[in-house]
Specification:
With about 450 residues, this protein is of the alpha/beta class. The chain is about 40% helix and about 10% strand. It catalyses: a quinone + NADH + 5 H(+)(in) = a quinol + NAD(+) + 4 H(+)(out).
Length: about 450
């Protein structure tokens, strides 16, 4: 997996001052174990948090840093931490790490867990101290077998060093950490579905409120954070708020750095730690190297399969939540995918919607029935058997499954790329309407069910 630095590929070496997440990585790609991690200032932030900072001060520092969730939703981490109850009599609380990285085109958390497992453990240790949680779980995608092996080894190393378990660093604070491998469902990326799965239940999202901070795992206060989010915490505690904010580019409303990447038929597909606010063009041209010879960029997704498609002229947008929102979609995970000019958009969307349809938990009707309906229509259009009105029905489904129309965010994410693909490449969809029915296109009324 490729990792480069701030400037065009390999011109600047990673350092603790500029690359808080990745500067400890080994050039050979092997995992950094405890002795090497500590030699590279590992667990210094945890010692500072345990000996020099009050628990509420840790929460306030993270809040002041502007750190936001790195799993795709982008909710302010310090604000989320502040929702945990202040009542000291509630002595059973949980910290969950969402490592169920199943978003297509996304692999950033896998790299951190496989190569820097102690960075995640240190981030969770500091977070547990701040949140007064006595037990933590890393809910890991079941297919990440190497990450599971490395995390379990790192947990044992930390226990042996007195960094997990009882009376950590002589503070009187206890924290146990467990690696829990999931059964393999995309919906477990939603925090309450993750909680249900951890409890041994069906992975359906829960109604909110109550929020996990009030009623989470086994009915106790729970905080759920993404892998990359937690990995940012040690650097913020060690080097401070002002430094962390200074990492982002001018104009960015998001602070710090972000693991970003590009996949597809680009010359240098990979993953890089970059400051929020770099442009999509820098990411695409300077790091990914542009398209391979013989291919042309047709469109791109900025952050996983659940984000809308953008055109080449949108590459000048800054890569942060507000910057991508200005061109009509979401930052998501920050790992982009290039679509080349040989790809038929109908076939691509049929493939995507098949995935999202299969991964629906089936709890609410619009998602359970609407996504398979979209697959059926897209398959017919792909085979040249589409009927007059199919495109309008697809657009109706985009609206009917949009934000606020379903129980969780699965369906809105599933149909966002569909809506954008029809917006920018409608002729490709129209080409799949059977010729004998194409003459009726202008006389179709959108079905009431999906047009409401």
């Amino acid at each position: 997996m490729t990792l480069t630095s701030f400037g065009p590929a390999n011109r600047i070496q990673r350092s603790a001052e500029t690359h808080p997440l990745t500067w400890r990585l080994r050039d050979d790609g092997e995992a950094v174990w405890l002795d090497e991690y500590q030699a590279k200032n590992g667990y210094a932030a945890a010692r500072k948090a345990f000996t020099d900072m009050a628990q509420d001060d840790i929460v306030q520092t993270v809040k002041d840093s502007g750190l936001k969730g790195r799993g795709g939703a982008g909710f302010p981490t310090g604000v989320k931490w502040g929702l945990m109850p202040k009542d000291e009599s509630i002595n059973i609380r949980y910290l969950l790490c969402n490592a169920d990285e199943m978003e297509p085109n996304t692999w950033k958390d896998r790299m951190l867990m496989e190569q820097l497992p102690h960075l995640l453990i240190e981030g969770m240790l500091i977070s547990a101290r701040a949140l007064k949680t006595y037990r933590g779980y890393i809910f890991l995608r079941g297919e990440y077998t190497t990450a599971a092996k490395h995390l379990n080894r790192a947990v044992e190393e930390a226990k042996a060093a007195g960094l997990l378990g009882k009376n950590i660093l002589g503070s009187g604070f206890d924290f146990e950490l467990f690696v829990h491998t999931g059964a393999g469902r995309y919906i477990c990326g939603e925090e309450t579905a993750l909680i249900n799965s951890l409890e041994g239940r069906r992975a359906n999202p829960r109604s909110k409120p109550p929020f996990p901070a009030a009623v989470g795992v086994w009915g106790k206060p729970t905080c759920v954070n993404n892998v990359e989010t937690l990995c940012n915490v040690p650097a913020i505690i060690a080097d401070g708020v002002d430094w962390y904010k200074s990492l982002a580019r001018d104009g960015s409303e998001d602070m710090g750095t972000k693991l970003m990447g590009f996949s597809g038929k680009v010359k240098n597909p990979g993953l890089w730690e970059l400051p929020f606010g770099v442009t999509g063009r820098e990411l695409f041209e300077d790091y990914a190297g542009g398209m391979r010879d013989g291919y042309k960029l047709k469109c791109w997704q900025p952050g996983g399969a659940g984000t809308g498609f953008l055109l080449p002229e949108h590459l000048d947008a800054q890569m942060y939540a507000g910057g991508i929102a200005k061109v009509g979609t979401r930052m998501g995970t920050g790992l982009a995918m290039a679509v080349d000019d040989s790809v038929n958009m109908v076939s691509l969307l049929r493939n995507m919607e098949e995935f999202f349809s299969r991964e629906s938990c089936g709890f609410c009707t619009p998602c359970r029935d609407g996504l398979p309906w979209s697959v059926k229509l897209l398959r017919a259009i792909e085979n040249g058997e589409g009927q007059a009105g199919d495109i309008e029905t697809l657009l109706g489904l985009v609206g009917f499954l949009g934000p606020g129309k379903t129980f969780c965010a699965h369906a809105p994410g599933a149909v966002e790329p569909l809506g954008s693909a029809i917006k920018y490449f409608r002729p490709e969809f129209e080409a799949g309407i059977a010729p004998t029915r194409a003459a009726d296109l202008n006389q179709v009324v959108t079905p009431t069910m999906v047009g409401a």
